[in-house]
Amino acid sequence: MSDIKSLVLPLTEASVRTLRAGDLVTLNGDITITAGLPTHRRIVEYMEAGRPLPIDITEDTLFHLGSYSEETDGRFDVLYMNPTTSTRFNSLMPGLIRHYRLRMVGGKGGLDMASTAAMKEVGCVYLSFLGGGCALLSDAIVSVVAVAWDDLISHYRLVRLRVADLGPLVVGIDSHGNSIFEQCSRTAEERLPEIVKALDEGRARRTV
Amino acid sequence: MPVTYEQVKAVAAQLYGSALKKVPEDTKAALVSAHAAETSAVARSVLSMMIASARRAEEADRHLCSDAGIPTYFVKIGTAVTLQGNIRQAISDGFDHLVATVQPPILKHVTNPLTLERGHKGRSMPLVSFDLVDGADYLEITCSPKGLGAGRWAALEIFSFPTLDVIERYVMDCVLKAGSQHCPPVVIGVGIGGTFDYCAKLAKQASLRPFGQTNPEPILADMEARLLEAVNKTGFGPMGTGGDTTALAVHVDYAASHGFIPVAVCFNCWINRRAGARLYEDGRIETFE
């Protein structure tokens, strides 16, 4: 369980399908990131219009990571990156996962079951990044491959980065329909009656 | 010598910077204890990374999170301290100074709720609230920048003559609703009573309480211990990917109320941003977490 799989990107569908919810992985290679809802909407517009994206994400990655990028002397530098809440993009992700046949998505907090279904169809996993992991995650940035849509504020831009040993990241949702997030919610719901009973019993003991 | 505009401005900037880059010592210790007690291998791995991230941010003088949050300051004014200059402005200018100078720079998270445009400034920013402390010879400032990840899940409901089981059940409902989303393990602040507005502030201030203090109200001390155990039985775990550690602490405060009794619940993510300082007239500045 605690063995960490070192993955080299891009991944084939077959290799994505070998990953299981609960696996720990590190990433090596190029990833595409953004933390913007307007960015996701723009991707959908491009998708619907059949326009190519400035950074091609077909059979590739799209992670919900915000980054600070700044331009000096005509080239972009990325000073740091960190995950944002993926569930904010729940309504848009199934369409993007299917259309671009994304192999890896991720951020923090997971995605809903509609995305999990889309991921199962195309062969895609969700990776959970450490929120508050900015210093560590940013150490994995090797170079900036591209920064697109710089008309948007920094964390909304579409950014492609070369990374080495990014992680460890937890496979939160695999390509077989298993979601740790959904499992955790279900478990908590199931345990709630017992938990509430223990709360009540504890309170009763105190007041006796 | 009074506490001056310049001092307050410098402290307001410094507190924000330190809240962005340093996890409080008690919180780091709680993460280490949680790591030792965790039964889930994935959770231990996530907790290890949290501990390493806290260390790395301090060593490298970097941000813990890319979400610098919205600037929030709580000010307590001692009635025995003399102030010179515009103190609210000093806090606002201190924040502006931080934005202009902090390295690495912070992203734009202050959002106009009417247009969703984002920047570093906005109406009523920074959010500053003031209280008086009778007889105290200092000005106390606490900075707790609030990010989206945890900020989004705070909730308040108004009950009519709720019994304790109703209140505790509501806290659990909020915990289940937040689920894996708020960068657990979290600190949970609960306010009971007062009015709508007062209750929310009680909850937030309770969340800022240092770890390890026993609640002076026995009913609440008992409630805190039971709720902490209850929350950690849910199994969401660190970053919500499963485990025994969903909360590091539950802190509850209360105020007398009417028969309509608000209950407010808020969450601080694992980096538990809080940084404070007391400024005295002799120029001393004592910082605390």
UniProtKB/TrEMBL annotation, chain A:
The family this protein is said to belong to: Belongs to the class-I fumarase family.
Gene3D superfamilies: Fe-S hydro-lyase, tartrate dehydratase beta-type, catalytic domain (3.20.130.10)
Cited PANTHER family: L(+)-TARTRATE DEHYDRATASE SUBUNIT BETA, L(+)-TARTRATE DEHYDRATASE SUBUNIT BETA-RELATED
Domain of life: Bacteria
GO MF entries: hydro-lyase activity
Species in which this protein is naturally found: Rhodoplanes roseus
Entry protein name: Fumarate hydratase
Domain Fe-S hydro-lyase tartrate dehydratase beta-type catalytic: 10-183
InterPro entries the record matches: Fe-S_hydro-lyase_TtdB-typ_cat (IPR004647), Fe-S_hydroAse_TtdB_cat_sf (IPR036660)
Keywords: Lyase
Automatic annotation (TrEMBL), chain B:
Annotated source species: Rhodoplanes roseus
Keyword tRNA-binding: no
Keywords attached to this entry: 4Fe-4S, Iron, Iron-sulfur, Lyase, Metal-binding
Domain Fe-S hydro-lyase tartrate dehydratase alpha-type catalytic stretches: 12-277
Keyword Nucleotide-binding: no
Matches recorded under Pfam families: Fumerase
Family of the protein in this entry: Belongs to the class-I fumarase family.
UniProt protein name: Fumarate hydratase
